[in-house]
């Protein structure tokens, strides 16, 4: 499972990098602004780019990532072991970790938390991530609330049995959906737990005045020494992004949570005053044009190759003020398995025309290009339209609301081409498996699915399954290379035109410190509040 860009917190994944060598300071209070109020702080429910990092700072899971990187590390788990058959993980928990209510976290809390997220009554958008666990199907069907595969061995030991070896499972244990929560707090607040969150995290929620602000306060009992660095974080909501940026320029705001508005981007980029305050990060995201392989004439491989060669990706990047880099394959560069040596299809309109002629379309043809009707997406589609017209293809643009474009993509013979901008997939965790199934695999080529190219290559699906069964540590390099081959082999069938890998830009006040990677953190998106600090 993944989610589209607009609904995603995980929109800012940064290539793993070192954390700042500067000595962090303790203390200080900061202000972060957002235009919209926060929907929820329940880790089983929250699934947008705004609340993701907040939830990460309130809760912990068995696994996490090294700050500012994509390196998976232990969190509430002190250690883990894997059975010889690769199906059972046994986690030893850290002792003395306390919830915000003062009670010590135990193995029974782990079992309860996973079962709560999997339970359909919770209505968690992340429930499907737990489908590899033995007994998940029975829970999902409402037949039981007990996850058979999760066993409490003792107060500090829990085992989790899967139905088959799964190399992505530890990543799942690092998602917000796997955060550990105390049953008594959920029982006390019920549906309002998301407004009264109780976790083990670095911060505690001290005040939430709807429509005005949220205040996070440092958890004095946090199990990690010296973390967090900051005493209080005030999230001011209802703040228009342009106003927030003006306040940041006056040092009244420390982080503009909504980022830099497009109208101010070039000013900030070119102003030397903001050179050290503006942060750039790569995302695990690729913007792509889907080519429906089931609809004539796009069912012709030569036609799809011609379209790949017709699009001027550099020009598309210029339309969005250079906030991306051209792409040549589905995987983004920050993803394990990305093939640096792969060259993809070159921009070559003349070769594209020749391929169309070979395919039997020397005069081109007429088709439709679907796009979301929010800027800059229509302008990007118009650029592609012009490129296609240069090789004789007349692409009529259908600019629709996001929901209508998504619906059209889920109908097999309705949308010949879709520009994914504003709806493209963001990886939920830094693993190539999370980038395949829903958007290029056979499982997504179904009515209502997100594989809008309707591409299904069972041999490549099998290669992906083989890769995901490689769970041993010494197999991970081979596994990443195998996944990389899945994606480059798929490009031989040209179901997509990969257009660009979008970058994230943010800005903070001059009083803020911490490595740049923390401000576009891979997991604590958009900011790792636990490790940034005030000078």
TrEMBL record:
Signal peptide (residue range): 1-21
PROSITE patterns in the cross-refs: SBP_BACTERIAL_5
Cross-referenced SUPFAM superfamilies: Periplasmic binding protein-like II
GO CC terms: ATP-binding cassette (ABC) transporter complex; outer membrane-bounded periplasmic space
Single GO MF descriptor: peptide transmembrane transporter activity
Start and end residues of each Solute-binding protein family domain: 71-444
Biological process per Gene Ontology, one example term: peptide transport
Keywords assigned: Peptide transport, Protein transport, Signal, Transport
Protein name: ABC transporter substrate-binding protein
Organism: Marinobacter nanhaiticus D15-8W
Family (UniProt): Belongs to the bacterial solute-binding protein 5 family.
């Amino acid at each position: 499972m993944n989610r589209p860009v607009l609904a995603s917190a995980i929109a800012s994944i940064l290539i793993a990098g070192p954390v700042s060598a500067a000595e962090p300071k303790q203390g200080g209070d900061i202000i972060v602004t957002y235009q919209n109020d926060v929907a929820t702080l329940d880790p089983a429910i929250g699934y947008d780019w705004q609340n993701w990092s907040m939830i990460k700072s309130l809760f912990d899971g068995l696994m996490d990532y090294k700050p500012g990187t994509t390196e998976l590390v232990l969190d509430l788990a002190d250690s883990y072991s894997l059975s010889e058959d690769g199906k059972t993980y046994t986690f030893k928990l850290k002792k003395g970790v306390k919830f915000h209510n003062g009670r010590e976290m135990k193995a029974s809390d782990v079992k309860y938390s996973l079962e709560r997220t999997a339970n359909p009554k919770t209505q968690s958008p992340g429930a499907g991530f737990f489908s590899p666990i033995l007994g998940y199907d029975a829970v999902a069907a409402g037949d039981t609330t007990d996850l058979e595969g999760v066993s409490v061995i003792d107060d500090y030991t829990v085992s989790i049995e899967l139905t088959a070896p799964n190399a992505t499972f530890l990543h799942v244990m690092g998602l917000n959906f796997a955060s550990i929560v105390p049953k008594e707090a959920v029982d006390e607040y019920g549906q309002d737990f998301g407004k009264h969150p109780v976790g083990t995290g670095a911060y505690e929620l001290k005040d939430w005045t709807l429509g005005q602000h949220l205040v996070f306060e440092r958890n004095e009992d946090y199990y990690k020494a010296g973390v967090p660095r900051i005493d209080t974080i005030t999230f001011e909501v209802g703040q228009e992004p342009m106003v927030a940026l003006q306040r940041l320029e006056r040092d009244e705001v420390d982080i503009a949570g909504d980022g830099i508005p497009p109208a101010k981007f070039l000013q900030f980029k070119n102003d030397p005053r903001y050179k050290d305050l503006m942060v750039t990060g790569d995302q695990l995201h690729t913007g792509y044009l889907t080519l429906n392989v089931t609809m004539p004439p796009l069912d012709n491989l030569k036609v799809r190759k011609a379209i790949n060669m017709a699009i001027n990706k550099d020009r598309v990047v210029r339309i969005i003020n250079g906030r991306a880099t051209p792409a040549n394959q589905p995987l983004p560069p920050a993803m394990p398995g990305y093939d640096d040596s792969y060259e993809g299809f070159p921009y070559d309109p003349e070769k594209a025309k020749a391929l169309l002629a070979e395919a039997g379309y020397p005069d081109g043809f007429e088709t439709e290009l679907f796009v979301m009707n929010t800027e800059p997406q229509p302008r990007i589609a118009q650029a592609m339209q012009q490129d296609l017209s240069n090789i004789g293809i007349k692409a009529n643009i259908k600019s629709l609301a996001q929901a209508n474009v998504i619906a059209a993509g889920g109908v097999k013979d309705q949308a010949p081409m879709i520009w994914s901008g504003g709806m493209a997939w963001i990886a939920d965790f830094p693993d190539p498996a999370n980038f395949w199934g829903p958007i290029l695999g056979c499982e997504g080529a179904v009515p209502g699915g997100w594989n809008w190219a309707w591409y299904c290559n069972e041999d490549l699906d099998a290669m992906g399954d083989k890769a995901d069964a490689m769970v041993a540590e010494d197999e991970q390099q081979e596994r990443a290379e195998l996944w990389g081959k899945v994606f480059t082999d798929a490009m031989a069938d040209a179901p997509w035109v990969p257009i660009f890998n979008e970058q994230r830009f943010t800005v903070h006040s001059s009083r803020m410190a911490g490595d740049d990677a923390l401000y576009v953190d891979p997991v604590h998106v958009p900011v790792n509040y636990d490790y940034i600090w005030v000078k």
